[in-house]
Amino acid sequence: MAEVPHEREEAAREGVEEVAAEAGLCILPSTLDSTPHVGNLLLREDLLASPPAHVHTGGDAWFGSVATSVEVFKRFSVNSTFIVKNNQDFFPMKALHAVLTARHGDRPAGHWVTMTTTISGVPLIAVAYAWSQNRVSYFISTCGSTEVSPIKYESKFEDAWGNTSFKLINRPKLAHFLYEYLPLIDEHNKQRQNILALEKVWLTKDVWFRNVTTLLGQCTVDMHRCFRNRMIEKGVSPSKVDSIRILTFTDMMCGGLKQWPKPKQHFLIVGNEDGKGDGRPTRIYGKDGERTKPPTKQQEQQGRNIGNAYVRNCFVCRGYLSKKGKQINNQTSFWCSKCHMPLCRTDRSKDEEFGPPGSRHLTCIDAHYYASHNSVICCGKMHGQKEQFPKEEQLSLHPRRSSRK
């Protein structure tokens, strides 16, 4: 966070506390009784918020680990409860699962096993809880009780006739307390991870940037639901609403945050005569939505945690021949947002490698969206990565000269 002048430090601290409490970043005793919490993905305490001692925080598996629980308590005297999945260092996941299986066999639903220890003076409770016959959740906590909660977990399932039924399953008080203050974690996670797929769009290994995407993800989910409900009220079918370009929708949340000092390039938002072509190009991404490749060993040695951007050869440029009669290949990191044809965002209409000045009248983007008469470069079917430009369609704009001396 930015430095705060001394005379404004107290006001800033109070403001951060209120924002953190409202957003679910931390649960303060002063707001527990009066403010309803919708804190999906609760995060670690922020140092600037100066949380009072012996409050409680919790979170999902992205932050959950033994190290997180110990550090939060050692640094802030704050108790915590986290779900553990991938961060298994110092966590006895295999041992807990083995004991659970040995005790309850193939019918573990509603049962749990517990292990306790002390690390650096911090008491820890590790729990393996089977909330169905084949699904187990793991918790790490510095406080709480593992006794049976009076409020049971409601598990819904589909019976043999296709009807949705439910059954009540026991769960420990520790797990119930965590989910009691995270009432929207399942719904937000489902929409954020499945429909919006934000984790595949906004990849990050930085914990503080993750905090930003978490808050932004909450806003995106809420805005998407509001938009969906409004459209359905107007008579638009739910399937048509859900077919909206989700990447475009989520990027709307990031628009206009800061005025870019450099001049913006104009993008045409036009379509072909048959309605194809949906607007401006976007960055090329991988199969999981990532915009950059994993870092190489050399890049990791340089301290980088991301690799180079995905690039391909512009397909429109490949339709032209150089002065020597060879195909022109210009790399680009952008493609059409609908058909995924690689397109140069740079204006190359005046580049001499294509021919004399003025020989090309359109940029690659304009040529792609205006070329309704050209089935090779127009916006149509999905563009394959190995697709080749037909040689009979390639053009040479260089003037022919006699080879006679």
Mind explaining what this structure looks like?
It comes from Nitzschia inconspicua. Residues 269-303 are annotated as: Disordered. This is PiggyBac transposable element-derived protein domain-containing protein. Residues 273-293 have a biased composition (Basic and acidic residues). This protein has helices at 6-23, 29-32, 66-76, 93-104, 173-180, 185-195, 198-201, 207-233, 238-242, 246-251, 297-301, 364-370, and strands spanning 56-59, 79-84, 111-119, 122-130, 136-141, 153-158, 164-169, 281-283, 312-313, 331-332, 334-336. The longest helix is centred in the middle third of the chain and has 27 residues, at 207-233. The chain has 405 residues and is α+β, with helices and mostly antiparallel strands. It folds into two domains: 23-183, no CATH class; 259-398, no CATH class. The protein is elongated, with a radius of gyration of 28 Å. The chain starts with 5 loop residues before the first helix and ends in a 35-residue tail after the last helix. The strands form four sheets. A five-stranded mixed beta sheet has the order 1-2-5-4-3, sandwiched between helices. Helix content is 29%, strand content 14%.
